[in-house]
Amino acid sequence: MSALTDCPILTIDGPSGSGKGTISRAVSLKVGWHLLDSGALYRLVALAGARAGLPADDPSAHAQLAAAMDVRFGADAAGNERVLLDGEDVGREIRSETAGQGASRVAAWPEVRAALLKRQRAFARPPGLVADGRDMGTVVFPEALLKIFLTASAEERALRRHKQLKDKGSDVSLAGLSREIAERDLRDETRQVAPLKAAPDACVIDSTGIGVGAVVQRVLELGVTRRLWTRERI
Ligand code: DC
């Protein structure tokens, strides 16, 4: 149990395209825990900033927006993700690689990270939380009962993102996407505040060549070992 949140927490951190989102969603559905997609919050800050016409180099204006923006997460009747910004569904818009680049830029500002901290911790509610991001295990939920650092080769991550974007109807070149992902990862890994890195007590899972089902099963097994849930639940 986390003293910060009084709720059991599983964190899943890792670079772009490592499959964090898919794995986090599947695990949260299986065990009936809440889900925090922290990357979506950074994507929303960038989008809200652009819509409000904020100067692209103004951290404090973006931080104010990060604290105040009206955001809701949910799903439609068919179970598709819905992300509402000021009541408008922007779920598709925030998933582009351009939105990811914007998110990575605003995420490098300490003011924005600080403004989102309380918002992210508010997601921790019983029976538990699966938190997906870059600094979930290192900064936002350092007391999480289980921390996963999910990775995969750069080639495979680019291929996965490419497929994901194509499935959503975006026509992007694999070579261009690979370059953009490498740029984004470098920025996320080298920023001064809360850089992307594995917590010292994280379990590292390299998912290169491993299917989603097997990774989900590995995380569920680790959860049993850490007593997050019982074997009967999985
Ligand atoms: O997980 P994602 O691709 O949706 O994240 C988009 C960007 O947001 C990512 O490149 C870096 C930033 N981010 C972050 O800095 N910290 C997090 N906990 C989650 C995302």
Describe this structure in words.
This protein has 9 helices and 8 strands. The chain has a single domain (9-233), classed as P-loop containing nucleotide triphosphate hydrolases (Rossmann fold). It has helices spanning 20-31, 38-51, 59-68, 97-106, 110-121, 136-140, 154-167, 174-190, 212-225; strands at 9-13, 34-37, 71-75, 81-85, 88-89, 129-133, 146-151, 203-206. By secondary structure, the chain is α/β, with parallel strands linked by helices. A 5-stranded parallel sheet has the order 2-6-1-7-8. The two termini are 20 Å apart. The relative contact order is 0.22. The structure holds 2'-deoxycytidine-5'-monophosphate. 2'-deoxycytidine-5'-monophosphate is lined by residues 16, 38-39, 42-43, 100, 103-104, 107, 133-136, 184, 188.
Shape: globular
Strand content: 15-25%
In the CATH hierarchy, what is the architecture at level 2? 3-Layer(aba) Sandwich
Small molecules (ligands, ions, cofactors) in the structure? 2'-deoxycytidine-5'-monophosphate
| Main sheet properties | 5 strands, parallel
Sheet with the most strands: spatial strand order:
2-6-1-7-8
Number of DSSP E strands: 8
Tell me, rounded to a whole number, the average pLDDT.
Answer: 94
As a whole number of angstroms, the C-alpha radius of gyration is: 17 Å
Number of helices: 9
The CATH homologous superfamily corresponds to P-loop containing nucleotide triphosphate hydrolases
Q: What kind of oligomer do you see? A: single chain
Top CATH class: Alpha Beta
**Could you name the CATH topology?**
Rossmann fold
